[in-house]
Amino acid sequence: MPKLWNETIEAHRHAVRDAIMETTAALVGEHGLASVKMTQIAEQAGIGRATLYKYFPDVDSILIARHEEHVAAHLAQLAELRDRAGMPEERLHAVLGTYALICHHRARHAGTDVAALVHRGEPFARAEQRLVDLFQEVLGEAAAAGALRADVSPGELALYCLHALSAAGSLPDESAVHRLVTVTLAGLRPAAAPGEPDPAGPADRHRAAQEHQRHARH
């Protein structure tokens, strides 16, 4: 079969799959997870039931697949920030700040029943481990540059960041998210010795806040 024909078929399959996932998300958002049936999804997506079942066996599998795609996109976004040029502390701030905003916006678009469905099982555990590994990498770079406290390992601090910033999902607005990121970053910095000035003085904190807001806008 010609390559172009294969690519056309694959593009069509991706389009159908995307339409199924977005249709399901919209129906669940409107009616709730328990009320949505495969028949409704097929009708709203403009495909036959037989075609729908070729892609997914049930509603839960559709939502899980959609969540996994979103997670993959978010991990790619965070990896891009990790790999960008600049000072390690700036990259750390960008990664943690962006992750906090992801948590905040995700919580606004997923009901508790959907969250309970997708935040479990092996795929979720793998994604969370990839996130912890990414955090550990950027924290390790900051530690090597002397911008990180030395009494706790980057691995433990990665878990601290994961759980601290997940609270962004419960915050009312982005201003509160920025404050949470500032507090989290403060817990990562080396402690000042008695009588010494804060290693992150007012000017540094102001610059860090401006940097975070700039990344948030993008």
Order of helices and strands: HHHHHHHHHH
Count of DSSP H/I helices? 10
Helix percent band: over 70%
Q: Tally the beta strands.
A: 0
The low-confidence runs, each spanning 5 or more residues with pLDDT under 50, are 198-213
Distance between the termini: 42 Å
Strand percentage lies at under 5%
Task: Estimate the mean pLDDT confidence.
Answer: 84
Judging from the principal axes of the Cα atoms, what is the shape?
elongated
Our Rg estimate from Cα atoms comes to 21 Å
Structural class: mainly alpha
Describe the largest sheet.
none
Pfam family, one: TetR_N
Keywords: DNA-binding, Transcription, Transcription regulation
Protein name: TetR/AcrR family transcriptional regulator
